Every structure is written in structure tokens, then in C-alpha cells.
């Protein structure tokens, strides 16, 4: 399965499956989904190139997904004018596209194996739409899941752990951003037409922890949906 895109097959990353099932999905090596957050300085061109090379070593197929939806409304909710939010959102989307493109050019030959998508590419797809309806129903009917989503928005999108500091409009904008991504956490194998898939990100989140821990909720991850925390090995202390 190794493509030998770079000499070191580990490529300086530490991978941690989030459960025993996630470990098995990683071992199968069918598919990895690499989510790239727009506007996140963590995803430099060099780090993306190394991360994609790592994924190409362990997985047969790799898809890269960047978010290009609800960015402007998030920025407006955070205090930007509508005009400035639109301009800033477009700039951030162009920037993440450029970084991904240059990262893939950096790891050639082999970069053409990776498929790159904007989230908006899937909005009209029936599988995505079916999963999105399921997500919205879960948010409305499962208080535990709704609480996890709100916590996720406050901690990761708004960077405000104090719930009293979030106006309803701001929280709603963050939820809209998050809900657009959620189908890829619930059943990315169905969306991409693969046998199993590992959703890879550099931090664990309340949402992933919920989907791994609770199998009795309204919203459940597909049995062939895995999650992995993949971080630079330098972030971990050496014994």
C-alpha cells in the first residue's frame, strides 16, 4: 500500500485511533478523509504536504475536504460588517485552496492520487442531504447531542468557553457552520463510496468523543466510520 512518496513512511506524525473500531478501520486502510479548516494557521503548506504523504502511505484512497460554507455569516456574527465578511471569507477560501494545491505539487509524483473537494461540492448530493436531515433531526430531539454541538461551537469556533458570552445569533451562526460538516463525521464511507473511512484531524473534539462514546443516541456514526487524531510527532514528549 505504501507509495514511498517520501523516504520516511511515518513522516513525523503520531496517529491515535479514537477506539478499537477506529484502530481496525485504520488497519484496513481503505480511505482517509483529511479535513482542512479554512483560516486555520495550523495547516501550512509544508504540514499539509507531510500529512498527505502520511495518509497516502497508510490508506488506499485519500480525500481532502475544506470548508467553504457559512464562513461569511460566522464572520458577521463575530462583528465584521457584511461587506468585509464577504471579502475576508473569499480571501480565506482562496488561501486554503492555494495551500492545498501547492502541498500536492510538493509531493509529486503521487500528488494526483489525492482528491480535493470544497464542502459546497456536496450540498446537492442525495447522500449528503439525507445525512444532513438526520443531523438536523438529532439536534432538535437529542438534548445531549445539542449540548455537545453547542460546546463544540463555543470552544473551537468562537473560542468562548463561557456560555453567557454567546449571543443567540452568534451561536446559531456557529451551529450552521458545524452542521454543514457533520454528515462527514456520521458516514463519510457512504458519501465517498468506500468500504470504510477514517476521519483524520489534529485534535480530538467533543463531537468525535460523543460519536465514539455514545452508541445509543439519536445520531450514531456508521459502523465503518472511524476517527483518528493525527498530530506532528514533535508535539509528543519523548521518553
From TrEMBL:
Pfam families: CDPS. It comes from the Bacteria. GO terms for molecular function: aminoacyltransferase activity. Keywords: Transferase. Belongs to the CDPS family. This is Cyclodipeptide synthase. The lineage of its organism: Bacteria, Bacillati, Actinomycetota, Actinomycetes, Pseudonocardiales.
Amino acid at each position: 500500500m505504501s507509495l514511498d512518496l517520501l523516504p520516511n513512511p511515518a513522516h513525523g506524525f503520531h496517529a491515535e485511533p479514537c477506539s478499537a473500531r477506529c484502530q481496525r478501520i485504520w488497519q484496513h486502510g481503505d480511505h482517509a478523509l483529511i479535513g482542512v479548516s479554512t483560516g486555520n494557521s495550523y495547516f501550512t503548506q509544508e504540514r499539509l504536504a507531510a500529512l498527505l504523504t502520511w495518509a497516502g502511505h497508510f490508506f488506499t484512497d485519500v480525500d481532502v475536504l475544506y470548508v467553504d460554507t457559512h464562513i461569511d455569516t460566522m464572520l458577521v456574527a463575530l462583528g465584521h460588517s457584511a461587506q468585509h465578511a464577504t471579502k475576508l471569507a473569499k480571501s480565506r477560501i482562496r488561501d486554503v485552496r492555494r495551500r492545498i494545491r501547492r502541498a500536492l505539487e510538493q509531493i509529486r509524483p503521487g500528488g494526483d492520487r489525492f482528491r480535493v473537494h470544497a464542502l459546497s461540492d456536496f450540498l446537492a448530493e442525495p447522500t449528503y442531504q439525507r445525512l444532513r436531515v438526520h443531523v438536523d433531526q438529532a439536534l432538535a430531539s437529542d438534548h445531549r447531542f445539542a449540548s455537545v454541538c453547542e460546546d463544540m461551537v463555543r470552544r473551537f469556533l468562537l473560542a468562548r468557553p463561557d456560555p453567557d458570552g454567546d449571543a443567540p445569533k452568534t451561536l446559531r451562526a456557529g451551529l450552521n457552520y458545524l452542521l454543514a460538516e457533520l454528515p462527514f463525521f456520521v458516514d463519510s464511507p457512504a458519501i465517498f463510496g468506500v468500504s470504510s473511512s477514517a476521519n483524520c484531524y489534529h485534535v480530538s473534539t467533543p463531537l468525535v468523543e460523543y460519536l465514539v462514546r455514545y452508541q445509543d443516541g439519536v445520531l450514531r456514526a456508521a459502523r465503518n466510520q472511524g476517527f483518528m487524531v493525527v498530530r506532528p510527532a514533535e508535539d509528543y514528549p519523548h521518553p
